[in-house]
Amino acid sequence: MAAPITNIKKQQITEEQLKEQKLDNLKQLLSDQEEAVNQVLRIMAELNDIGALEAAMKLLEAKEEVAHVALGQLTRKPVTNIINNLMGVAGALTELSPETTTKLIDGLNSGVEEANKALESDEKVSAFKLVKMLNDPDVNRALNFGVHFLKGLGKGLKE
C-alpha cells in the first residue's frame, strides 16, 4: 500500500514567472480583440493629430488650478441664482400633478394654434365682437380659468 501524503508542497511562482504569465494573458487578450485594439489606436492617433491628447495632458497637469477656476465660476452670484431658481422651479413642478401639467400644456398649444390662425386672417376685433365672444364656451372657460388663476396668484403674493 502507498504511504499517506503528509506533506503538500505549494508551488512557488517567481516574480519572473508571474510577469511572463501576465504577458501571455495580455498577448492573448490583444489577439482576441485585435479589431477593437486597432480602433482604439486609430482614435488615439486622431486625438493626437488634432492636439486633444496634449490638451488633456495639460489639463491634468494643471488640475488644481482648473478646479479652482471652475469652483470660482460656479460660486458666482449669477450661477448660484440660476441653480436656486432651477431648484425652486423643480420643487414647484413636483407639486403639480402630471395630468394638470399635461392639460395645461395641451391648452397652451391649442391656444397658440388658434392665435396663429387669427393672425393669418388679420381680422379686426370690435368691442361688440369681444362681448359676443364671451358667450363662446371655450372663451368663457379660458376667462374663468384666467380670473381664478389671477385670484390665486394674488393670494400667493400676499403671503
What does the radius of gyration come to? 36 Å
SSE string, helix = H, strand = E? Answer: HHHHHHHH
Please report the number of helical segments: 8
Q: Tell me the fraction of residues in β-strands, as a range.
A: under 5%
Q: SS-based structural class? A: mainly alpha
Question: Could you describe the largest sheet, including whether it forms a barrel?
Answer: none
Distance between the amino and carboxyl termini: 98 Å
As residue ranges, the low-confidence spans are: none
Shape summary: elongated
Q: Mean pLDDT across all residues, rounded?
A: 89
* Count of beta strands: 0
What fraction, in percent, of the residue positions are helical? over 70%
Describe the structure.
The chain is an all-alpha fold. The chain has eight helices and no strands. It has helices at residues 15-32, 34-49, 52-61, 63-74, 77-95, 98-121, 127-133, 137-158. The N and C termini lie far apart (98 Å).
Characteristics:
159 residues, single chain, mainly alpha
Quick structural overview:
Helices cover 81% and strands 0% of the residues. It has 159 residues and is mainly α. The termini are far apart.
